[in-house]
Design goal:
about 200 residues; alpha+beta; Jelly Rolls; four-stranded antiparallel beta sheet; binds 2-oxoglutaric acid; binds manganese (II) ion
Length: about 200
């Protein structure tokens, strides 16, 4: 699939060392990508999660949803197994075809405007295994994404366009943090899906 889509311009690794990050553009027909954005926006049951910061429950600056074939716990919240909705199932298939990896869980993020963001973190939970493949799809507003190396402090910025996939693999989660910062620019909404493979049930 990657070979067909990107025969003229094979994606290159955007990290200088300690991991692999590939950006694939135009992963589906433009009309399908626009429809996918609208369908996700309108049909996903978006949740406002909170995070405990200095003992206080603070709303996270984005809306989220989670689906997967196995139960999953993140940020202290237990998510029972819950089937992929019809708007997400074909995207899971696409993410698996693009990466060649099996992907049994997905976290969705809805960034309503430039005030929404995700803070520095790595997707390095034990249940994702050593050197996980994470396929991150973007629909809607293009936003800037940052990597920061955990020991050298090296930084990489990548603009994530509508209708794209960012594939993170190898030592990426072990060696690098990533974030999607707020922006003061007037920007529209963006929907992101990060597909992962979760190893086992956690209770
Ligand atoms: O929105 C993005 O591009 C990244 C989201 C992310 O890093 C995550 O959900 O773990
Ligand atoms: Mn992440």
């Amino acid at each position: 699939m990657i070979g067909d889509l990107f025969a003229n311009e094979p994606p290159r690794n955007l990290l200088p060392h300690d991991g692999e990050v590939l950006l694939l553009r135009d992963i589906m027909e433009p009309d399908d990508a626009d429809r996918t954005f609208e369908r996700l926006k309108g049909t996903i049951v978006w949740q406002q999660e909170t995070a405990k910061i200095h003992g206080k429950e603070i709303p996270v600056p984005r809306l989220t949803a989670w689906y997967g074939e196995v139960a999953y716990r993140y940020s202290g919240v237990y998510h029972p197994a819950s089937p992929f909705p019809s708007a997400v199932a074909p995207l899971r298939k696409l993410a698996e075809d693009l990466s060649g990896a099996e992907l049994n869980t997905v976290l969705l993020n809805y960034y309503r405007d430039g005030r929404d963001s995700v803070a520095w973190h790595a997707d390095d939970e034990e249940v994702l295994g050593e050197n996980p493949v994470i396929v991150s799809l973007t629909f809607g507003q293009e936003r800037r994404f940052h990597f920061r190396h955990k020991t050298t402090g090296d930084r990489i910025s990548i603009d994530l366009p509508h209708n794209s996939a960012l594939i993170m693999s190898g030592a990426t989660q072990h060696c690098w943090l990533h974030q999607l910062p707020k922006t003061a620019r007037q920007v529209g909404p963006r929907i992101n899906l990060t597909f992962r493979n979760t190893c086992r049930e956690m209770r």
